Design the sequence.
């Protein structure tokens, strides 16, 4: 319709009015088209809550390699592709074996009497607290068969500095981290040939504290080329480059066998407790503070935290300062289905695991619809989600001595997927 107006105008020869209306009608037509485009593509106009709720019964990606499926299916047993927490379990199993066999990593060496040994070497003590994942990774790596002393057989090079230790080191501190990293990269690039060969593309570091995000500001090559394995993996923020970088889960360390609580024994619909350090959390608590089904707390609980997680069907991970918190790990440990309320979170192992099979990822815009979204999940669907929670738990667990498929090995697999994008002929 709009097009015929334009044609009509332009074909009505030598009319002054035509000349006058032509630009106006062109402008009008473009506006209509633009409006239609925005209308049909923008969430601002069309935003039913169902859109952001990930449907656990959505069709599942079909496995890629039929041949590999047949080959591996015996080991995998009866788990069908459609009912699995993995995008493609058989492919993962095959690739995992290959990774486990072939991946070699060279860690820049430091002696115990090096002035920065505390930052470069794994700690002897038990990793503790919120940022334990960083410590656990380093300890596990140094004890593993992935480490090689021969850099010529290494596919990846580990930058062993600990952001968490640098923060607490009086000689460096939060304010000195950027300068320290700049000098560190300069040092290794002068003392060894490896950095210059690839501009750092086959190098990686691991950090769980969010100050790691700005730590590379004076070492741009690290930010742009190296593989950053971090807890605060938000693809909305400039320090993190999804696909190149990888997400490591933030896990509060727990030793004991996790307690079990059956789904029907979980009386509350959803649970959240935590400090009010973000708009998302404030909005969440303000919206649901008096609800009888959704239990939200902005201060210390009088009852044990574990009871909250064990007594609820769903447990909410609401973004704080960062997209990541230890709450997803907490929820999984206690067999509670995580609700992820953290926009732009590049979720850990997202290229291995299907997060929509064991969690509910909700846009923060949908906080007012949270109850409806969760109540619409049928009992059957819930049982499926909860069963997957139990099956993925092992991937979110650290060990003093790493075991296959635990958090350490999953991160190794993520690294392996990102290896060798740059090949060199030299060296
Ligand atoms: C991985 O490698 C270790 C050390 O060689 C071995 O003990 C383990 O069985 C391997 N795991 C798998 C799944 O191949
Ligand atoms: C860099 O090397 C110098 C000289 O060896 C050393 O004093 C300094 O501590 C090193 N700095 C870093 C950050 O590794
Ligand atoms: C690597 O490149 C830097 C900057 O160009 C240079 O200063 C350094 O000497 C080089 N390292 C080696 C080992 O050649
Ligand atoms: C919850 O209850 C308190 C106290 O009665 C009230 O001040 C608050 O506005 C209520 N919040 C909501 C969201 O209804």
Sequence:
């Amino acid at each position: 319709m709009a097009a015929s107006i334009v044609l009509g105008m332009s074909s009505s020869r030598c009319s002054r009015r035509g000349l006058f209306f032509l630009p106006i009608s062109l402008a009008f037509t473009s506006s209509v088209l633009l409006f239609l485009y925005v209308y049909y593509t923008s969430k601002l106009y069309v935003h039913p809550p169902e859109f952001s709720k990930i449907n656990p019964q959505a069709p599942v990606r079909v496995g890629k390699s039929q041949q590999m499926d047949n080959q591996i299916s015996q080991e995998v047993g009866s788990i069908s592709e459609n009912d699995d927490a993995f995008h493609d379990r058989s492919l993962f199993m095959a690739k995992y074996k290959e990774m486990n066999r072939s991946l070699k990593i060279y860690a820049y060496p430091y002696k115990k009497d090096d002035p920065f040994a505390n930052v470069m070497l794994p700690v002897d003590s038990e990793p503790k607290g919120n940022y334990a994942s960083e410590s656990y990774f380093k300890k596990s790596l140094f004890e593993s068969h992935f480490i090689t002393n021969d850099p010529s057989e290494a596919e990846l090079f580990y930058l062993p500095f600990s952001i968490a230790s640098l923060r607490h080191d009086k000689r460096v501190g939060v304010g000195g981290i950027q300068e320290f990293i700049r000098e560190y990269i300069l040092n290794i690039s002068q003392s060894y040939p490896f950095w210059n060969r690839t501009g750092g593309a086959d190098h990686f570091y691991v950090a769980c504290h969010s100050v790691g995000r700005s730590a590379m500001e004076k070492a741009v090559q690290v930010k742009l080329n190296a593989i950053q394995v971090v807890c605060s993996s938000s693809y909305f923020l400039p320090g993190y480059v999804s696909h190149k970088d990888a997400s490591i889960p933030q896990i509060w360390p727990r030793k004991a066998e996790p307690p079990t609580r059956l789904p029907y024994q979980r009386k509350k619909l959803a649970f959240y407790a935590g400090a009010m350090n973000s708009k998302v959390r404030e909005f969440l608590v303000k919206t649901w503070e008096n609800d009888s089904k959704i239990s939200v707390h902005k201060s210390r609980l009088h009852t044990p935290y574990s009871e909250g997680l064990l007594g609820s069907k769903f447990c909410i991970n609401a973004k704080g300062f960062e997209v990541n918190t230890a709450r997803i790990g907490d929820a999984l440990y206690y067999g509670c289905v995580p609700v992820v309320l953290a926009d732009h979170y590049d979720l850990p192992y997202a290229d291995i695991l299907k997060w929509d099979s064991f969690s509910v990822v909700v846009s923060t815009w949908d906080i007012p619809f949270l109850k409806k979204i969760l109540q619409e999940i049928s009992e059957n669907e819930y049982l499926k989600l909860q069963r997957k929670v139990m099956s993925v738990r092992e991937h979110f667990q650290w060990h003093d001595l790493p075991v296959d498929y635990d958090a350490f090995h999953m991160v190794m697999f993520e690294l392996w997927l990102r290896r060798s994008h740059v090949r060199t002929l030299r060296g």
About this structure: Confidence is low (pLDDT under 50) at residues 1-14, 42-79. The two ends are 66 Å apart (CA to CA). The chain has 16 helices and ten strands. The pocket of 2-acetamido-2-deoxy-beta-D-glucopyranose (ligand 2) is lined by residues 180, 183-184, 187 (CB under 6 Å).
